[in-house]
Design brief:
The protein is α+β, with helices and mostly antiparallel strands. Helices cover 71% and strands 14% of the residues. Strands 1-3-2 form a 3-stranded antiparallel β-sheet.
């Protein structure tokens, strides 16, 4: 799952699907990608369970599977505070270096 969502285009697809179910053609239009590219990314996301698909007439409708993404969410939340503290420490160091240059 982590490897699948590490790819930026796949995260864009997940962002779009977070707003609700969409057919492939909508994703192609919104992401300005070719249909083969979108289908390839959707296949990877389906294989890891991040998205689900259903047929509706001649269209395939894709939706986010939030339950499958929960482990990633939980992992990020667990370390979020630690990352924020490190960024704050980095800001302090950068300010100190700027002061030394002046």
């Amino acid at each position: 799952m982590f490897n699948a969502v590490a790819e930026p285009r796949r995260r864009q697809i997940l962002d779009v699907l977070a707003g609700g179910e969409r057919p492939v053609n909508d994703l192609v239009h919104l992401l300005r990608l070719g249909q083969p590219q979108v289908s390839k990314h959707l296949r990877v996301l389906r294989e890891v369970g991040a998205v689900e698909v259903r047929d509706e007439g001649r269209q395939r409708m894709y939706r986010l599977n939030s339950h499958a993404l929960k482990p990633i969410h939980d992992w990020v939340k667990r370390y979020e505070r630690s990352w924020s503290e490190r960024f704050e420490q980095l800001d302090v160091v950068l300010e100190e270096l700027k002061d030394k240059e002046r």
